[in-house]
Amino acid sequence: MAKPKLLLADDSITIQKVVSLTFVDRGMDVVVFSDGDAAIEHLDEEKPDIVLADVNMPGINGYQVCELIRSNDGTKETPVVLLVGSFEPFDNDEADRVGANSHLTKP
């Protein structure tokens, strides 16, 4: 049986390491991209079971990543959780508009 796969799109090396270690220890495969463009470019080949996307990263942001995932027939049902820094603005209306499942505040 294949392990569940998490795709993380975040430009913070610290967040990449923390998320990877946390979910690998729980039996998941984790693929990491430092920007939204690379995450979307590899979305179809990675076929993640869940996506975590930073709302403030280089290239396309987490809201746009979510919107593109929802517009793709092959990934539109994939859960998307937006990540936002504790001191960064978060737009609930935009998150709802793009169809995000939830959001988490990162330290």
Topology:
Blueprint: E1 5-9, H1 13-24, E2 29-33, H2 36-41, H3 43-46, E3 50-54, H4 62-71, E4 80-85, H5 92-98, E5 102-106
Parallel strand pairs: 1-2, 1-3, 3-4, 4-5
Helix proportion of residues, in percent?
25-40%
Number of strands: 5
Rounded Rg: 13 Å
Low-confidence runs: none
Distance between the termini: 34 Å
Task: Characterise the protein shown here.
This protein is an alpha/beta fold and 107 residues long. 36% of the residues lie in helices and 24% in strands. The protein has five helices and five strands. It has a five-stranded parallel beta sheet, with helices on both faces. The longest helix has 12 residues, at 13-24. The mean pLDDT is 96.
Keywords:
alpha/beta; globular; 107 residues; 24% strand
Short description:
The protein is an alpha/beta fold and 107 residues long. Helices cover 36% and strands 24% of the residues.
